[in-house]
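User: I'm writing a tutorial on reading structure tokens. Could you give me a worked example: one chain, its sequence, then its tokens, then a sentence or two explaining what the tokens reveal?
Assistant: Sure. Here is the example chain.
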Amino acid sequence: MTQRIFTCLVLITAALAGFGLLSQDPAAQNKSKHKPWIRLEPGLEYGAFISPDKSDVGDNLIRILKIDPKQFQFRLLNASASPGGKRLSAKQWVRQNGMVAAINASMYQADKLTSVSLMRTFGHVNNRWYSKDRALLVFDPKKKSLPHAQILDRDCQSVDQLRKLYHTLVQSIRMISCDGKNVWEQQDKKWSTAAIGMNQTGDILFIHVRSPFSTHDLIDNLLNLPIQLKRAMYVEGGSEAQMYVHSGKNELEFVGSYSTGANETDANTLAWPIPNVVGITRLSPSKK
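And here are its predicted structure tokens:
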């Protein structure tokens, strides 16, 4: 390898690391098609999948953190619950609260604090409005017999009854119908995306895609991946879409960038402060 080529590779790698795309990313360098997941710790796996259809911007990787709810406690954290309403990046939310990972909880309103739909947890209500959105992430069950965490669909289940059985509720826009179909109409706009999903076996998926897609095209891509996706809800787009993971020696931070009409570049490296996140902490053996 010539010195010039080596120097170029170093510069490219450094730039990508600034985006949080190559920095200690084991799955992005995993070449196995048969074992796409990297085990980070018990109940936690991470994978980076090449998008079946390509965007003309970015690396076209769909990064997914797969979480076993029997091994991890889910938490909803809100800036509106703290004095001063200070917003933080996903990384800061994780570090300041002793968590393992976090992702955007939902889109928010012009006050930069309040979710667009229902959002509540122990001792705090961020938004009490139960909107027409069809997807509802629920955790902190009131009965031990219930799943620790799941995504409910108002067209598939008696959600008005089921939501009363959980302490924490996060409502957002669903991406997949009860029969596994894409429910978003096609549109010209595209953006980086953060989403939360659930697979056929009940694992919760934190999903981050920096390369911009229309939501319709992204859903098609997700349905064509070998991830057994059952349900998914959109939680954020553009530069604010982010995911952070710190498990053992693996520290991964991914931020969005592109948004049609707002920031039509792949240049953003800033993890923006966001008001609401869903995070995870390790469950103690006594609670498993």
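What the tokens reveal: The longest helix spans residues 3-18. The CA atoms of residues 244 and 253 lie 4 Å apart.
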